[in-house]
Amino acid sequence: MASPSVAYTYRYPFPSALKPASNDNAHPELRLATCTGADEHPHFFAGAPRQAHLLGKLLLVLSDVVRTHFYQPFRPALLDPVVTASEGMLRFEGFSSCCGVYARADLPPAAFDAEITGRGTTNVDFNDPMRSALARMRDHDEIRLAVGRDEVVLEQDGGRAVEKKVKLPVRWLKGFGEVQAYQADLEPKLEVPAAEALRFVRGLPKSQGAGARRRGYVVQSGRALRVSPREGRGPTVPLAGGHRVRVLESLLPGARRLRIWSDDGTGVSAWEIEHETARFFLVLSPELHRGFSGEGQLLDLLASGIGRDLLATVRGRLAWQTRIDPDALADDLGVPADKVHGALAALGARGLAGYDAADGAFFHRELPFDAAAVEALQPRLKNARKLLDEDGARLLSRDAETVDVEVQGTGVRHQVRLALSPDGVHRCTCRWWSRYQGARGPCKHVLVARLLADEVGSIGHASEA
Amino acid sequence: MDADQLLDLILRGESERVVEALAPLSDAERRKLSRPVAQLCRKMELGHEIEPPADATVWRKQRQRVLGPPPPVLEAACLARYGVCPRSQLRSNRLWFFWNEAAEARLLRILRDRRPDFLSDWIGDVYDQASDEDPAQLRWPVVRALIREGLVDRPAHPDYVTSMAAHFVPRWGQVPKHLSQRLLDDPGLLDDEVWWLFEVDIGRDAWFRKPVPETRGGEPQTVEAWGGALLRLSRDGHLDRDRLLSKAFEALSRSALNSSSLTGIRRFAEYLEPTLDDLASRQSELFRMLGCGESPVVGWAVKCLGQLQRRGRLDAEGFVRALPTVFEISAKSHPLRALKLLEKVLGAGGSEVDLPDDELRVAVAEAAGRALLHPSRDVQDRAVAILERLATQHQETDQETSPLATVVARHAEAALPTLAPAQADQLARVVGAEAPTSSGDETLDADEIEQLRRRFEGLRDDVRRVHGLEGSWDEMWPHLPPAWSPPAGTPPRLAHVERIEPIADWEELVDAASHAAEVVESADEIERILAGLPRFGTQRPDGFERRTEALAASLGQPSGEFQPRGLRGAWSSVASDLEDLLRIWLRGQRFRASYIRRSIGPFPFFSRRVREIAVRLRAQRTDPLLAAPTHSGGWIEPEELVRRLEALGDRPHDPCDLVQALLRLAPDGREQALDRAGRLGDRLHGRLGPLTRFALGGDDRPTSADRKLRLAWLAAARSRDPSGSARPFLEGLGRRGLRGLGAGPDGMEPAEIRWAATTVRQRGAWVSSGSYPHLDISTSGKEQPLTEPHEVAWTPLHVRAGRAIRRWIGRALAETDLPTAALYRIADYTWEPADLQTEWQIDWLRTLWPARADGVLAAGARWTIRRLDMAASGTSPNHAYLTPLFDVDRPWTDLAYLATVTALMSRDADARPAALDALIEGIEDGRVHPEPLADVVVRFFAQGWAKTNRLAETLDEVSRVGPLHQLVVARVLGALVSTWTERPHGAHLVLQLLLDCLEALGDVPTASTSEVLKGFQGQSKTAKLARRLRKLEPTADRAKRSAVAQAFRARLDRCELAASLD
Questions:
Q1: How far apart are CA A352 and CA B404, in angstroms?
Q2: Residue B771 above 50 pLDDT?
Q3: Which of B550, B566, B872 is facing A430, going by the closest CB pair?
Q4: How many Å apart are CA B914 and CA A229, to the nearest integer?
Q5: How many other C-beta atoms lie within 10 A of the C-beta of residue A330?
Q6: How far is it, in rounded angstroms, from Cα B937 to Cα B977?
Q7: Pairing between strand A45-47 and A144-147?
Q8: What values do phi and psi take at A311, rounded to 5?
Q9: Which of B302, B311, B309 is nearest to B339 (CA)?
């Protein structure tokens, strides 16, 4: 069955392309066409990259990720990456068609000979001729980069507008939000020089097979990295679908180092390549067949409603900042830090904030899609609310630490024990929970229990009053 | 015409009449017919049953209703749909049949008659929606005819060109009219379409086809594909050669096509025979080709640039600047040729760098620096040489802070850690840096050696003897300590093993069982549940029914996965026995023996254990399970077993539970346990007291009265001395008691295992007949029949018979044969049984007798050798057999080395890394020694089928860890080379690795290895390496001493731990 999708039209005033030098321009110019859902064509940046070859490779790899379905040999939807501009950084982000790989290229002002002036997020047209031009860019080429154009009308007169109708999979949009939740928990585990990283990446499988699908662990023995089937004693990073990392191969020559990030328990890994003037981040889902969209890491937060009252306030403070420190923001607002975290996570789920693990901070970006509608399409949360509306759950008992709830399942009644303490572990008797033990987010029964507990809690307060 | 008439024509398959009937209709009339036609087509697409007209001859047989409509009906339906339906209906036509030329002509007539205004858009829709699995139904000739008739514009979609390319190239076996002739028949194609071929992926075969072999005795027929056709048309003056050449160069330099298409275009460009002028005018494209990442294109570009260089027409600056991208391809030949070309550019004499300015020198350094990161040693060698030449020039003319020095230093810093020692030394000299050492922490000094000596001399003699450190320090240092092979049962085993936390209450038991129903994490988890069932299985607290309702409902349902990882819906007998056990616990149902499934090796024993627990549950017995492991891997702390027996009191025990418990006794703390058992006196049930004391090393012995417990006594004897004979201990059982007892391997006598690498004519499993690698593994001890009937048909009679036979055989064998013997039989099956298709079940095998894992390892070696050249498989988790090797206190036996080497030599992407891990960890903690490893490697290579490249590749990974690992690898490879009587394929890979390791250690080959190396003469790579190896001189052997010190450290740690636990 086809996954749900929303119709979306990319409308660019002109196709992205490498324009040869003309009388007006002393140098060839790589013009990236931009558009937002509101049919706007923002102009963000114009300047010369200091390392044109590197810029070309970064954008090409990003485009490769977006155009690849790593799990099945489907012809992927021709989706375009998005770019976020602010004074501190130009970020290009993309998500693979299988929704299991997130990629981001960070270009600080040092990467260019000009300041980044624009602010905002927009789609960028990545077409075949432009990809071809990216592949041909060399460091000694004196190329200028323009993200958007301030003379759009002139371009439209002289060239042709581009209109691409695509079906944006809902899971693709959801993944954009979900991956931010993972990144906030990542920690650097391994670090190797680029030369060693290149040797390691070249040894990874080129395509998925039984060996590539199985989860292994990247370990460091001496200076060398290798994939071990066991977790081992030292720092390790889980890795499934190692062929997904192969896309980084072309970025490693000339890089400073590779840092590999991971968290405790989820199986997500992030691969950061650091260059002198740029950074590339690749985040992999825990399993090859699992996209970030189905992980449900945000569901608990969304169901709990923590920080919901702060959404508008926090959103108002984002202001296209490159670096938003939740703790500092909490101090500033005079509210508990977990509430600000909750609000930022909820904003992230709506595509209004991204997370940069290397900086350890959120950044403001507004996905040019209607991501707020996507939040409503969280199937587990939607089903949970439906169950609650249909009186499919009843509270059995409640004490200081736990809440026991009975939830109607298919042919059986599930028993949910909700842990109220932050470190507590929920429990449910359904098969989803039995299988994943919460590693893929809460099941719908746990969400019902949470919603019911909140509801009953407020009734309790009301009666006390 | 009304709808019924049209539908009738469709169902009769009257395509021609459909076309005629629709021809005169107006748009309004067509709209009226649209709905019923669309509905009929939809029914056909969904496979719904369709009632044909009674007299429709095309539906010849009733079976057509089952198979779906016949092709004429499908064609008529399609034509009608194209004739009347709106664009939205035509977007997704899923009616499949083979369009022949007549059908296409009818379609053309339909569209020509209808002339819808959406025709161009509709063609765009069809191309847009076509996917790789679902190619567009709209065939190219129809689209082309519509274009020629002016009904549609030429589609801009690439699929239009790819479908044209596919249409003109004949399928295998067809040799139609030449493609060039067919193109001339439609000259419009030469103006536009053929030029698009250079912009889309049509694949190598569409560019050039191999000659079709003529099967009837004639000459092979040459099939003209696109490349040949364009060449012919160019020669005949129909196409401009220069434009063709430009398009080909443009395509190759654009890097937008796939590898297959680029290969075809590259060949085409080659056949156009570009002249020097052609090449010279297109140098910028050639430079771009260097970075295209496709080996055939890069190679051709280098070749063309070489031609230009020879004639002095190469743009040296452009070449140097474009060069760094060549090194992004991993093949070595083209990067190597590119570097040779660079050397020529730099000056043939080698004495002078003939470059116009410093900036270009920096570019050369940049290119050579990139080449340092190439995986090929030869490319790295040449890059270092170029950098050396540049640096020599530079020292004479420039300052240290120049851009050239900066670039060279930057690349050297990045590459030095990954280069081979000799290259690293050479490069370090170039940049004036220090070459990195192999481990980075080799600061071995006299103090440290003195410390090791003191630790050595501080050990008790008996501890040193047990751990292979006999002799004085001066005799031992600085040689590797001998292989660690303490007598079985002597080294402590629990110090590094995780303790298993028992299940705390009934709710945790429910959680654990629910999880195991879906996913079994490990054998330890199964044992936790088995141990928890007797303790909490009889409890029925408030809410029990509610809490277990979902689990009870899910048991017995299929898991919904192809490979069940949990107990629910499992295929193996023991897994379904466990599932039944959970049902008995939850709902008190009867035990359903899994008699129809084939169970092998020790799994029937596990099943019997499960059934014993089922009987306990039904009898409401809450005695603790004797065999529940206290530590991971199956170990039971001896004192804990005594406590359990004490708790059992005078109640009867379960036979399999007792045997299993005795086999799992750990060597640690037996004396304390014996004291405790001695204090209990005769308070234990029956003869359990003497039996337990005997197992723990006491003086008790069996008597003739112990015949009923004779198997338990045998298990106790095995547990007491795993590597000795049990017979002297069990004499007291008498002749009747000893009759037939423990005849299998690891029964009365410890198993002696012999193996040899052989080649066999395969009997059939997995592969077709032929000669295949084989390991002939044989054990001492009488072979026993299988404990289970192979297959029992699914009839009540057979079920009963099977059950009876099974009980009888099972009981008979249970009295005489330890389950350890059955371990050795699991490698003898032709097909991998379901019992061995999940990791946790293989993991369970090693818990049967944790003291000795040879049976499991033998099975692992046998199953792995069968899949030696096959990729990993989810249903053959051979890596799981290697798990015992990760037990840091388990000495490596011959079988351990064999299982590891077999997995290292396999293509299995799961087993190979597992073996690599085991080997690296084994070397690190001192369990792996080069001598036995080399012995096994040499024997493994005896038949000549083992691949030296795989060995070199895996051992290269091992050698990267540190000096000790390099030392082990060097010894193993040296031993292997010394057995070579002729040069094996891939010998240079082994010699290269040997050279790297010896250089890093400052060591030299042994005399026997050098003797063999003398035999390699000539200019081959192997011969050159052999000469370099022979010329090695021992150097300051700091790395080697560091390796030996690490080995001593590991051994002394082990000795001190053992001494502290005594």
A1: 46
A2: yes
A3: B550
A4: 6
A5: 20
A6: 11
A7: antiparallel
A8: -50, -50
A9: B302
Residues in chain A within 8 Å Cβ distance of B253: 136
* A463: three-class secondary structure by DSSP: helix
- Quickly count: other Cβ atoms within 10 Å of residue B192's Cβ: 10
Strands (E) located in B766-828 = 771-779
pTM of the predicted model as reported, rounded to 2 decimal places: 0.81
Most trustworthy range by pLDDT among A235-249, B125-139, B570-584, B773-787? A235-249
Q: Name A269's Cβ contacts closer than 8 Å, sequence gap at least 6.
A: A218, A237, A238, A239, A260, A261, A262, A283, A284
Span B950-961, mean pLDDT?
Answer: 93
Specify the DSSP class assigned to residue B981: S
pLDDT tens-place string over residues B793-814: 334 444 555 556 555 555 555 5
Q: pLDDT digits over B1026-1058, tens only? A: 999 999 988 766 788 889 999 999 999 999 988
For CA atoms B609, B612, B617, B618, give the dihedral sign.
positive
In this predicted structure, the answer to whether residue A5 has a pLDDT above a threshold of 70 is no
For A378, phi then psi, to 5°, come to -65, 105
Give the whole-angstrom CA distance, residue B88 versus residue B116.
13
SS3 of B789, please? coil
What is the distance between the terminal CA atoms of chain A, rounded to a whole angstrom?
51
User: Among residues B394, B316, B400, B308, which one has the least CA distance to residue B360?
Assistant: B316
CA distance, residue A414 to nearest chain B CA (Å)? 6
pLDDT in tens, B804-843: 655 555 555 555 678 888 888 777 766 667 778 888 999 9
| CA–CA dist A143, A49 (Å, integer) | 7
CA-based R_g, chain A, Å: 23
Q: Provide the pLDDT for residue B1008.
A: 95
pLDDT at residue A153 in the model: 40
Name residue, tokens 């949970």. A384
Between positions 185 and 204 of A, the ones with CB within 8 A of B are: 193-196, 198-199, 202
Taking residue B968's Cβ as centre, other Cβ atoms within 10 Å add up to 28
Separation in Å, CA of A312 to nearest CA in chain B: 41
Model confidence band, residue B588 (pLDDT cutoffs 50, 70, 90): confident
Cβ of B879 and A74 within 8 Å?
A: no
Show contacts of B465-473: CB within 8 Å, 24+ apart: B466/B490, B466/B491, B466/B1058, B467/B491, B467/B1051, B467/B1054, B467/B1055, B467/B1058, B468/B1051, B469/B1051, B469/B1055
Residue B62 burial class via C-beta count within 10 angstroms: exposed 0-12, middle 13-18, buried 19 and up = exposed
CA-CA distance, B344 to A427, in Å (whole number)?
72
Residues 6+ apart with CB under 8 A from B451: none
Place of tokens 């072309």: A250
For residue B941, which of B969, B913, B981, B971 has the smallest C-alpha distance?
B981
DSSP per-residue codes, B353-383: ---S-HHHHHHHHHHHHHHTTSS-HHHHHHH
Are the beta carbons of B131 and A409 separated by less than 8 Å?
no
Mean pLDDT of chain B: 84
Beta-strand relationship, A45-47 and A237-239: unpaired
Q: Could you tell me how many helices (H) and strands (E) chain B has, helices first?
A: 54, 2
- B7, HSE (Cβ side, Cα atoms, 13 Å): 19
Cross-chain residue pair A253–B370, CB shorter than 8 Å:
yes
pLDDT tens digit sequence for B94-118:
776 677 888 889 989 999 999 888 8
Tens digits of residue pLDDT in A176-218: 778 888 888 899 999 998 888 988 998 888 777 655 667 889 9
Q: For residue A343, which of A380, A318, A368, A366 has the smallest C-alpha distance?
A: A318
Mean pLDDT for the stretch of residues B112-141: 75
